[in-house]
Design brief:
By secondary structure, this protein is α/β, with parallel strands linked by helices. 43% of the residues lie in helices and 17% in strands. It has a single domain, classed as Rossmann fold, CATH 3.40.50.1820. The chain has a 7-stranded mixed sheet, sandwiched between helices. Helix 3 links the parallel strand 6 and strand 7.
Length: 275
């Protein structure tokens, strides 16, 4: 599918799946919509999905810095769903994309039928519940932060993926993938106010408690401890939310462990009517 105008932004959308359920997929920072291919190969008979490239990612237009990136991404998603004009749909988001899906569920609940959040990086939840972790988190991200301050994009990308990648050493990644990550690493900082400072007020306003759709929270058993704390905090704030741990998996679980993640999503959606 060519670029479409959504949220006032030129956005690339990929269609995946032959199933009966409409869904929208939200990829992680530094990724692109094609990253959903392994998971969708397992859910081809269940979902008719649109996967869009976030601003500055894939084949969508660059992010120009004039609008807060999580809010812009949310507006894009809302326009994509509204354009289908067939009622609420299922949302599946990973990492930063999961925080966009969560924001959409709060701001536009009429568009959302169910919510699957895979490794949501809404650090404001973990730090609100465990304020003593602030110093240790800063220490974990010190190499990345120092590289950002120095303006060294390659070193920043290397440090970031060492903590939040799929476990492969930086030098083993394909050159094109490394180059793309270096070019996009500034987008990590672009989303910081939303995921650390709760810029949208999702947590501070108590809006999470008003989410009424079914919610599935998925995490890898080998992910950084912040993810378990985030999902624990979300589960406590969202009535009826269910947590699932994929043992042996890390942050990139929908790519590295697509089959067990898909099985959990399939079981979850089987209990939710399409209309």
């Amino acid at each position: 599918m060519p670029q479409v105008e959504a949220g006032g932004h030129a956005t690339h959308v990929t269609r995946m799946g032959q199933g009966p359920r409409r869904a929208l997929l939200f990829h992680c920072s530094l990724g692109h919509s094609g990253g959903w291919a392994p998971l969708m190969a397992e859910l081809d008979d269940v979902l008719d999905a649109a996967a869009y490239d976030l601003p500055g990612h894939g084949r969508s237009a660059d992010w120009d810095g004039t609008r807060e990136i999580q809010g812009l991404s949310t507006d894009i998603a809302a326009d994509l769903i509204a354009a289908q004009d067939d009622g609420p749909i299922d949302l599946i988001g990973h990492s930063f994309g999961a925080t966009v899906a969560l924001r959409l569920a709060v701001e536009r609940p009429e568009l959302v039928r169910s919510l699957v959040l895979i490794e949501p990086v809404f650090f404001a939840v973990a730090l609100a519940d465990h304020p003593q972790w602030s110093e240790s988190h800063d220490a974990d991200m010190a190499a990345y932060a120092e590289a950002v301050k120095a303006g060294d994009a390659e070193r920043a990308a290397r440090a970031f993926t060492a903590r939040w990648g799929d476990g492969r050493p930086w030098d083993s990644l394909p050159e094109a993938q490394r180059k793309a990550m270096v070019q996009r690493i500034h987008l990590i900082e672009a989303g910081a106010s939303a995921i650390y400072d709760d810029a949208a007020g999702l947590l501070s306003s108590g809006a999470l408690s008003r989410i009424a759709v079914p919610v599935l929270l998925i995490e890898g058993g080998q992910s950084p401890e912040y993810i378990a704390a985030i999902n624990e905090g979300l589960a406590r704030r969202i009535a009826g939310a269910r947590r699932v741990v994929i043992e042996g998996a890390g942050h990139m679980v929908p790519m590295t462990h697509a089959a067990p993640v898909a099985a959990e999503i399939r079981a979850f959606l089987s209990g939710i009517p399409q209309s």
